[in-house]
Amino acid sequence: DDYFHREAIQEVNWIPADLSGNPDAYIIATVSGDGKVLLWDARDNDLSYPSRGFMLLGSKKKCLGGRSLSFSPLDPWLFVVGCETGTVMRAFRPPPGASVGKPQGNYTWKSSAVQLLDQLAANSRLTLQHHVEGFCRTAGIKEVTAEVVFQSKPEQAVIFPAPKTTDLEPHAGPVVVATFSPFHRKLLLTGSVDGAVKLYDVLQQKALLTLFPPSKHLSTCAVSAASWSSARPCVFAVAMEMGGVYIYDLLQSKQEPVMQLPLAATGSQKATSLTFNPRQRGLLACGDDGGRVRVFRLPFKLSEQQKSEMAEISGLMGDRGGKEGKPSLEKTRSMDATK
């Protein structure tokens, strides 16, 4: 079905439902190689249909397959998609428009269907409403639910509009990981099968840093996973598809890893996934191609935040006065929305 993912889902995120409502309310965001980002709200349905969606369109209006997805933890309207083409796409999730209430007329619009209308711009709302009511008239349906909206087969461009996007400096291959820093809402880490790891200020198109973790040969240099430390703003881990997990500390070096985890002694060196423990500092879990999970405890120096750390991040980002540049981010969102 055109309104669901038609290829493998590459990434799943939990994101806040909105900024003004229940702080404990979350929805699910997914991205796939079919070029769609879909949002799913388990509060209103059993995930049998998406509550919102976006099409990923390139410069020539061609659909771009997604490989990775990350929402800023400090600004959940901001998200980045890493694509199969190597494109790194910055986008803003438009906040829902003001509710227009239930359409008046011969059809009863249920709340689930009204919510789909509320997600759209005014002209798209009318287009969708007229299309759905025309379908109901032909089918003899009096109540409009979200299921009926999808059964009416509206154009994808109407129900899943393309967000306003900006392309950042690309990779030369599929972007398999994109992840925002938990400490700075503009700092982004990406990794690709081209063997490169890039750090971005998402307001700037050019990458701040490009790193190449050690590899024996170009054919074995693909990045398979990466993760920010939950304790140290300058620390992150990178896994290579054909072997090796490396720890970087930007306080010590902007190019070279400061530590390699000892995977060889335990068999496979092919780490396929990484994640830091969000509570216990310095614990890093690694999954490998043999189905095993190993947990490493990093040394104190790599797991205890340093006094100069946020200043180092601010310097790297070019922030003035140690601030995160909130007005600049809001200005960029406004500019993107008016493109």
From TrEMBL:
SUPFAM superfamilies: WD40 repeat-like
Region (Disordered) residue spans: 311-339
WD repeats: 22-50, 168-210
Listed InterPro entries: Dynein_IC, WD40/YVTN_repeat-like_dom_sf, WD40_repeat_dom_sf, WD40_rpt
Tagged with keyword Cytoplasm: yes
Location(s) in or outside the cell: Cytoplasm
Alphabetized GO MF terms: dynein heavy chain binding; dynein light chain binding
Biased composition, class Basic and acidic residues, residue ranges: 320-339
GO biological process terms on file: intraciliary transport
GO cellular component, one term: cytoplasmic dynein complex
Main location: cytoplasm
Keyword annotations of the record: Cytoplasm, Repeat, WD repeat
Protein name, as recorded: Coronin
Organism of provenance: Alexandrium catenella (Red tide dinoflagellate)
